[in-house]
Amino acid sequence: MRECGTRTITVAGKGAFLLGLLVGLTQSAARADLSDYSAYAIFGRSSVSALNNVTVSGGFVGSNGDVAFGAQAYVTEGVNAASSVVFGASPVSTGAVYTGASFITVNPLTAVTFTPGDDVFLGNDDSLVVGPGDHYYGYFIVGNQFHLTLNPNGGKIRMFFGSDVIFGNGLTVTVPDGGAQDIYAQTNGSWTFADNSNWVGTIYAPYDPDPEDPYSVVGNVSAGPGFTMTGALYGYDVSLGDGAAVTGQPFVIPAPGALVLGAMGIGMVGWLRRRACGGARTAPAFSKHAL
Fold this sequence. Notes:
Number of helices: 2
Shape: globular
Radius of gyration: 21 Å
Distance between the termini: 53 Å
Strand content: 35-45%
Largest sheet: 21 strands, mixed
Order of helices and strands: EEHEEEEEEEEEEEEEEEEEEEEEEH
Structural class: mainly beta
């Protein structure tokens, strides 16, 4: 255990003394220059917790509360936390560890105010294809082995959920034309992945639980064992199960007017195609609802 400023870092288990000494030599007060969400693969406004054999690369892990990893953590960039940082036995890599600030000021992503769309309830082995544009839902709850195709098609996908998002076991997400930097999802409730699921894109849960309701899970983002993703997780409490692997690649916010110009460009391509096909109708590239 080592004191840094007014906070504590604990490294448990085999090799704790040597790693604790290394951490003690490299840490300082919480990094003020890590002030943008794009620096983080994971940020929990209250806490970040992960079980054993969890890997986080491509961005920092940050919290205005505690950060706790189980055994054999592999965090390549490092941790920036206002409160305590705890690693379990035999961490493989921890990167740099910064603690000691009462609060980390992070330029917030702007929470979009929107009117929720329809609730979505789908069963096992169902599938959904989402194209470029903005898509609005209420609750979004699906069964096991769900197949989700996100195709930005040269644009951006933004999905807004008015309430909880719950995926069953074995979710598979494919992105045939684009990447994590093109996909953004915001929930006004909580977000849950069951076991052995994957995700591509940024997930943001901007609201905190109701302090008057002890059962409120608003803002929580949780993933079960075997979870893998490329993108970013931002919430109130963020938790990862055994063997989870997160590769940081946050959503790239378009320059002002880019979404509008993108829509115009896609619309022009569609118009030219219709002209070339003798006026044949094509489905619109942008729609309010994905279903």
